[in-house]
Amino acid sequence: MRIVSFLFLFALYLTTDTTPPQQDASAEGLRSITHNEMLKLGGDLIAIYWDSAAATDQQKETLQDLHNISQAMVVQGLHPIFLIDKQNKANNDAFNLSYFEKLPRLMMHLGEENVTELMEESFNVPNVAAFVLDRIQRGDPEDVYSFVSEEDLLDFYEETDRKPVLLFFTSKMCKTCAANMISIQRLATSLKDNVTTMTVNCDGTLDENNYCSRILMRKFPHLLLLADDVFTNFNGTYTTSNIGSWVINELKEERKEARRKEWAEKSKEIFSSEYYEEVGKNAYDKKGRPKEWPMKPNIRRTVKQMDDLERRIEKLEHNLKDFE
User: Fold this and answer.
1) pLDDT band per the 50, 70, 90 thresholds, residue 138
2) Is the pLDDT of residue 3 over 70?
3) How far does the signal peptide extend, from start to end residue (predicted)?
4) How many domains does the chain have?
């Protein structure tokens, strides 16, 4: 319910014609606070770092316009938008950070996820509203499944009557994946009736690592949409609205043939058991190495066989000692 009413208040404000009063932004309702005071607070924190001495009239007007959004957040039991001024000597250390060279700058910290993000878009009311709303809503983590192996993905895909799958690739080298996961979880919840969402940790299990290596996954985060037996790459900006619009557009009937054609230019493979059964007749080279995806050694099965073999050897050695 919190998300629904929060959305309504944002929409109500953005569609209302308001004429801001000509006075200081802080006097209009945005709460002034020091950087260190804010860090002591819990929960989700949203702050605008600014320079009251250098701010333009337009920037001050934008700050005044944000008062209604701040009030909407308080109504929902959240912190207001905080205002941190460079002119306050108590904030000197904070403004020495390189990313506060250009002001004003919006910063948001999500307490539950321990993720901090800076808004890169132009500083105006629509961008601030979109940035905050895109991050403050939560999805259900249980709606995001963990990738196990290519074979299991193929089985799952066909057992669900080829229900589309959104694959989110992550890695420990990815600096934004934790923040992006918030959007992925939100999308997984909103799209779960039509799309299954999975995460692939390229630093995870042997099966995950092997999959990422074999498809040359080197850039993170990365999204692949599996639909109609082919994969499509996402190349846009990682926001909930951008990814959601992309998924919905790609699943339109008129995009089906275009996606197949785009995939055919990259690979001859079709993600279906029928395809792999056919190519499986010639799936291995002279050295016994698999040539086709996902016709690869099942590493998990191989490790289990090795463990079983070691136990058998130990048992034989033990029996041999008893015999002697």
Assistant:
1) confident
2) no
3) 1-18
4) 2
Q: Is the peptide bond before 21 cis (omega within 30 degrees of 0)?
A: no
User: Binning pLDDT at 50, 70 and 90, where does residue 6 land?
Assistant: very low
Looking at residue 11, what DSSP letter applies? H
Residue 250: pLDDT band (50, 70, 90) is very high
Whether the CA torsion 95, 29, 132, 19 is positive or negative: it is negative
Residue 162 domain flag: yes
Which tokens belong to 42?
Answer: 């819990």
* Amino acid identity, position 20: P
For residues 28 and 20, the answer to whether their CB atoms sit within 8 Å is yes
Full domain range(s) for residue 17? 2-136
Is 61 within a domain? Answer: yes
* SS3 of residue 266 by DSSP: coil
Q: How confident is the model at residue 304 (pLDDT cuts 50, 70, 90)?
A: low
How many CA atoms does the CB half-sphere of 69 hold within 13 Å? 25
CA distances from 164 to 160, 192, 224, 254, 273 (A): 9, 10, 10, 16, 16
Q: Mean pLDDT across the stretch 175-196?
A: 91
How many Å apart are CA 25 and CA 46, to the nearest integer? 16
